[in-house]
Specification:
The protein is of the alpha/beta class. 32% of the residues lie in helices and 21% in strands. It has ten helices and 14 strands. The strands form three sheets. It has a seven-stranded mixed β-sheet with strand order 1-2-3-4-5-6-7. A five-stranded mixed β-sheet has the order 8-9-10-11-12. The chain has a two-stranded antiparallel sheet with strand order 13-14. Strand 4, helix 1 and strand 5 form a beta-alpha-beta unit. Helix 7 packs antiparallel against helix 8. It is globular and about 65 Å long. The two termini are 36 Å apart.
Length: 351
């Protein structure tokens, strides 16, 4: 659905760059891809020419194979001939920050990111767990996690941020809402999103129609809006909707958005309206479904309208909690603990 009066989404490049190659999407701006070992099998990387060096936006995971891809890009590939002097991290998720510390400690690059992103990344790389924290298991039980999934997870070593993120050395350069930054011969306004990740940086060129959108501004998919044991009462859906409404004031049909995943696109006003409408529709479906008490696990069908596979289960569960928390904080649902610890959610007045 296109927004009223807005241009539809268009994709200037119908195919992504091959591994180890780059596409010049604007003067001095290269688009590359780094593979990811998951359903969303890539992250987009952008290199901007600063004259005496490259500024890189986001990095991919840290692994031997991905570091080898980066070495090839820098030694014999499209980045050869000048050093990577600066890394910009849009947000703290491991597919974006994974090699920031490597570029700092092994290549002497400056790290530029938000204070929240740096603190989260630094804290999480140091928080190594060999067994599941009690709070995490309690959170899963509270969400009504499928018992088979729960038992399997509880018996395994938990995922640690440090498994795929290079150690973060001390030192970074902070950016915040309202800043202006010079990258690739352009001046960019820094504007923050929230919901998918706290203090997620986006960059809007003052000199042409480029927007570095990270995961805040994606085409064709919506970023995960999950709740985690670190902040179990969070309302990422509310934060997301506020961010989208606020950023929509700066969106134009002619801007070329360079997203963290999928293809660069134009038609940003339409896309922001789609993102907002999609979550409102999901909340409406969920509210109708809560005529009877349900757990977060029970709510997959109205939220996603498709079967959730094993590889998607964890992200689906935390996003289900996110939507339920939003309805709870807005006074539209109540919740009570079941004997097994699961929260049972129900629409106000339905009992």
């Amino acid at each position: 659905m296109d927004g009223a009066g807005f241009a539809p989404l268009r994709y200037p490049h119908t195919e992504p760059p091959a591994e180890g190659a780059a596409i010049e999407v604007a003067e001095g701006v290269l688009w590359m891809r780094i593979p990811l070992p998951m359903a969303l099998n890539h992250v987009n990387i952008y290199a901007l020419d600063d004259g005496d060096g490259w500024t890189i936006v986001d990095t991919g995971f840290s692994s031997k194979a991905i570091r080898a891809i980066w070495e090839a890009l820098m030694q014999t590939g499209p980045l050869a001939g000048k050093p990577v002097t600066r890394i910009i991290v849009t947000h703290h998720h491991p597919d974006h920050v994974g090699l920031a510390g490597w570029f700092q400690s092994e290549h002497g690059a400056e790290l530029v990111t938000t204070r929240t992103a740096w603190l989260y990344a630094r804290m999480l790389t140091l928080d190594v767990q060999d067994t599941w924290p009690a709070e995490t298991l309690a959170f899963y039980r509270g969400a009504g996690m499928d018992p088979q999934v729960y038992d399997k997870r509880a018996a395994e070593r938990p995922f640690n941020f440090s498994d795929v993120v290079w150690p973060m050395p001390l030192g970074f350069s902070r950016i915040e809402e309202g800043d202006r930054i010079r990258i690739g011969g352009r001046d960019w306004d820094v504007r923050m999103g929230n919901g998918h990740a706290a203090e997620h940086a986006t960059f809007w060129s003052r000199d042409d129609g480029l927007v570095l959108g990270g995961d805040q501004l994606l085409p064709s998919i919506s970023p995960n809006l999950g709740v985690y044991p670190t902040e179990p009462e969070a309302d990422p859906v509310g934060d997301w909707l506020e961010s989208c409404e606020r950023l929509s004031a700066f969106a134009r049909d002619d801007q070329l958005v360079l997203p963290g995943h999928k293809l660069p696109f134009t038609g940003l006003p339409t896309r922001i309206r789609q993102l907002i409408d999609n979550h409102h529709h999901a909340l409406d479906r969920l509210l109708k479904f809560l005529s009877e008490p349900r757990t977060a696990h029970d709510c997959f069908a109205p939220l996603y309208k498709r079967e959730i596979r094993a590889g998607e289960y964890g992200l689906a569960l935390v996003e289900s909690v996110g939507h339920l928390n939003h309805l709870f904080h807005s006074g539209q649902v109540t919740r009570e603990r079941r004997a097994d610890g699961a929260w049972m959610w129900q629409r106000v007045g339905a009992g």
